[in-house]
Amino acid sequence: MKYSEHIDYLVKKALMDEACEVRKKAYAPYSHFQVGAALLGEHGDIYTGCNVENASYGASNCAERTAVFKAVSEGERKFAAIAIVGGKEGEKTAVPCPPCGICRQVLREFVDPKTFRVILEDGNGGWEERTLEEILPDSFGPDNL
Question: Fewest CB within 10 angstroms: 5, 12, 51, 68, which?
Fold first, then answer.
């Protein structure tokens, strides 16, 4: 069975743990807002990413895109879920940190928006979960071309 067909609690917990760990590596000297992401490949591999800021703000890269680009550079092309955590440097998260619009579109390139899971830390030791379709309705993707 592919992970995209069923993602159990332990897999979601592992994704969240990886996202929390990689968040500590974020390079955010300007915003001091650190984000970590853990992306689950279709067959179970996990790819992590953190945000990397730049003095020329437009050259910064979000954690979600870092994870996607890392996975694609390693040959992965299909994904089942992503866990995302974010918050001010040195603080626990207090609210969910959903992906920005650009990251949602990048994810859309490689996933089925109806089944891809976006798992967001809720700040209370748990998480919220939605599909990409719920947070990016009426999306444009490869199937539109």
Answer: 5
